[in-house]
Design brief:
Elements (H helix, E strand, L loop, with lengths): L2 E5 L9 E9 L9 H7 L8 H25 L4 E5 L15 H12 L3 E3 L4 E3 L8 H8 L14 H5 E3 L1 H4 L3 E9 L5 H11 L4 E10 L1
Helix pairs in contact: 1-2, 2-3
Length: 209
């Protein structure tokens, strides 16, 4: 059962937003941490493996159960499922690095009253990858991390947004991990409202503690 929380308005977001998350995210390698999310990030672009497939399937099952709960609790008849884009432009990722996106598409296709909107926001300009420093420290590898850090309006400035598909819709905006204070999710929510969305409900698998 997903846990309800509220995303509070700030410089990135002009109104409080209802949010849900599935579980706490503590730290890489810690007991009970959802390590399948780290596997799916696949920061270093490893080829498709059994571990990646299993992690994807775990997320599909979680999404199906949690989205059904949110639909019932909110009494919303239909959601358009939109994904918060990864930090770099979409074309820079391999298929093996986009399995979280694939999991959302799969869950949406399997659910009634849920529409796949994963193509509605597409990153076209690289931004700073906020989790990359920790990932590279673990591997003791240095890789480029070009792009600006979060600022108000970064989603609109660095993404292609399909306004025709989202205007007037109720959106379930999905991310893998929500971390308070980073503000990527807040900015993405505001970008949706600025493009005519009627309502946004946010959902993440993990919530950083």
């Amino acid at each position: 059962m997903p846990i309800h929380f509220e995303i509070r308005k700030n410089n990135f977001l002009r109104s409080n937003t209802t949010g849900y998350y599935h579980c706490d995210y503590t730290r890489f390698g810690q007991p009970n941490n959802p390590e399948y999310l780290n596997t799916l990030k696949n920061t270093f672009g490893n080829p498709i493996s059994q571990s990646l497939r299993e992690s994807r399937d775990i997320v599909v099952d979680i999404l199906i159960n949690d989205i059904l709960f949110i639909l019932n609790e909110t009494d919303i008849e239909e959601f358009l499922c939109v994904c918060v884009p990864r930090a770099k432009k979409l074309t820079s990722y391999s298929a093996s690095q986009l399995l979280f996106l694939d999991a959302i598409r799969t869950a949406a296709d399997l659910l009634d009253d849920v529409i796949d909107g994963t193509d509605c926001i597409i990153r076209t300009v690289d931004t700073f990858t906020t989790h990359l420093t920790k990932a590279t420290e673990e591997k003791r590898i240095s890789i480029p991390n070009e792009g600006k850090k979060p600022y108000p309006g970064i989603t609109v400035a660095t993404c292609q947004i399909d306004r025709m598909s989202i205007e007037g819709e109720r959106i379930l905006l999905i991310d893998d991990i929500y971390t308070p204070g980073v503000n990527i999710d807040e900015d993405c929510i505001q970008a949706l409202y600025d493009n005519g969305v009627e309502e946004v409900i946010f959902y993440a698998i993990g919530h950083t503690v």
